Amino acid sequence: MEKYQGIEYLKYVVNTAKNKPVENAGRSSFRSANLELAKMELAKWGISNEPIVYENIDGALEWIDKRNDCADFIVPCLVRMLHEHRGTRLSEEYAQKIEKSLLGFKYWLDEPGEVHACFFTENHQILFHSAEYLVGQLFPDKIFDNGETGEWHRQHAIKYIRRWQDWRIRFGFSEWLCQGYYAEDMLALLGLAHYAAEPDILTNSRLIINQLLFDMAVNCFYGHLPTTHGRVYANILDPDTEGVSPVMHVMWGEGTLADVSDIAILLCSYDYKCPNAIAKVATDHPDIMINRERMSIDVAEGKYYGADPADFDNIMLYWGIQAYSDRLTVENSTKVFPYYNWMNNRIFAYRERYKLCDEAGVPAPEGTPDFTAMTKVNIYTYKTPDYILSCAQDFRPGRMGYQQHPWTACLGGKALVFTNNPASEDFTSRPNKVAGNLVLPRAAAHNNVVLSIFRVMPDFVDFLYTQCYFPQGEFDEVIEEGKWLFGRKDNAYIAVYSLNPARWEAPNPDYARFCGAKDPKDIKPYIYMTPGHANVWAVELGSKAQNGSFEAFRASFKNAKIEGDTHNFVYTSPSQGEMKFGWTSPLIVNGEEIALGDYPRYDNPYCQAAFNTKVLEINAGGSRTVLDAENGIQIDE
């Protein structure tokens, strides 16, 4: 039998862990069982390597037995061990330990026991459903802790899996372009794509994995995903820590090799092959590539799309969108937990707000009110060989935010630029200093320019300021001329303008943990901030290929400026001309209104598809892939 394509990555994982001190090898993590799976997979192919360290599996089982948050992340690894290595590379003693823990796990909210973990975000939903299905399939006649058989659990999971798959196929992902959560979605789907007995579940799992791969491919930048995101953490500052970068490395050869990436290990274990057309999209570097795409839905659209929020069968779609508290979902949301739970606090509070507004005869807040919501998003990505700009167009402006990340520009590596309204001075809160927004801006991108308007609610007296993340230490040149801030990284250029006067903040030593710096004393300023509850930021990108020298790029901004205020303004762009924008007015470029919404599912050089379709046709470099969930087939030519 021919060795599979990921063999070198698995060898790299094992050798890297072997050559590191134990405390740095990831062995204390509950996810370190993936390292032992890599060893087993190598041994399956007759490749001698390090002995199994069963303590790594113990850590995973302890996490599962405590029903801790994210325990569902490790089940796909254990399922693979039981399917492929029990009785050979996995000792029977540990196979029985794994079996005992999996039979005692809580697989959904309707089972007995307290809920200590998050079950309901988009990625967790499919992780729990996949785990329940696959473990139930492994042990159909065994009695689980909830008193039901494995076959009962498998049947219980089927309906949830089918619903989730239908929503993802038609609507994409509310956790859009998430560097970590796309990896977790794939973790859940790989086992189903290999072991599911139902043909539709098996086929759709593979189709959705490929849909995720295409989403990464069309929006990636040399194996990284420096884009807008539905949810983000502070590790956005260091692309080498992205959950999906190892995926891109093993799928098409661009990206970062992580020491122990669970998703990369599983992809290699299953010998998963990326369709040629998708790999060619990822490694294509045209002079200019523009992608427009839409994902997720607004709650008010649900009935139109056959996902009526009044139907309790659809409630997990809206919990995945984190629209639990919308007026159209709030009653069904009160029924999700079988007993009082921590999530009920906010749901009951919103329900009472609607009641009080109705009694007083005043309008309740319109639209989905919850600050965590990831409703309909229109994504714009502009990419050249030297830089990428990605923006969630006009996404929930003025609303409280959470982990939503409206836009990013990347000039390569850690030379990332974005604006935000911080919600804390730390790097771990949600939102925090750099990840997410206390109040979301109105942001819009057109070609190589992004404009973002902030209007922070006056109640947030400690955070009435906005900032531009601009890590000086990651640029080859940083120059301030008048109100313009310029940066060069290799052959890519960027210009930043703040309507209000801006200044540099002193670095925080804690930042070193998230940006990959070895010594906090080496950190150069990275936050360019401006006081005030309202501001406009204009950011424009260029390159040697587009503008000539860095000096010529800077000179082109001699007369560029913003005239007006945060309600309405005109930005005179050296490359795009007159750009009119405002808090409520449209984006108009040289007299032409630019659409910021109603994007199709995909509109790019490789795929054109209407929203709510079940068929994606992808063409690149003479290869063609059709992901046809309508007929349950995939075509690769």
Strand content: 15-25%
Chain oligomer state: single chain
Number of helices: 18
Shape: globular
Tell me the helix content: 25-40%
Could you give the count of β-strands?
A: 24
Describe the structure.
The protein has about 625 residues and is α+β, with helices and mostly antiparallel strands. It folds into three domains: about 5-285; about 375-595; about 605-635, no CATH class. The protein has a ten-stranded antiparallel β-sheet, with no helix packed on it. A six-stranded antiparallel β-sheet has the order 6-7-14-11-10-9. A hairpin with a 4-residue loop joins strand 20 and strand 21 (about 610). The radius of gyration is 25 Å and the shape is globular. The model is unreliable at about 20-30 (pLDDT under 50).
Features:
alpha+beta, six-stranded antiparallel β-sheet, 24 strands, ten-stranded antiparallel β-sheet, globular, 637 residues, 3 domains, single chain
Question: Topology, please?
Answer:
Elements (H helix, E strand, L loop, with lengths): L6 H12 L14 H12 L9 H12 L9 H11 L6 H12 L18 H17 L11 H22 L9 H15 L3 H21 L25 H8 L9 H8 L6 H8 L5 E7 L19 H6 L9 H4 L10 H17 L16 E7 L4 E5 L14 E4 L5 E5 L21 E5 L2 E7 L9 E5 L7 E5 L2 E6 L2 E7 L4 E2 L7 H4 L11 E5 L2 E10 H4 L2 H6 L6 E3 L3 E6 L3 E6 L4 E3 L2 E3 L7 E2 L4 E2 L5 E6 L2 E6 L4 E4 L1
Antiparallel strand pairs: 1-2, 1-20, 2-3, 3-4, 4-5, 5-8, 6-7, 7-14, 8-13, 9-10, 10-11, 11-14, 12-13, 15-16, 16-17, 17-18, 18-19, 20-21, 22-23, 23-24
In short:
The protein is 31% helix and 19% strand.
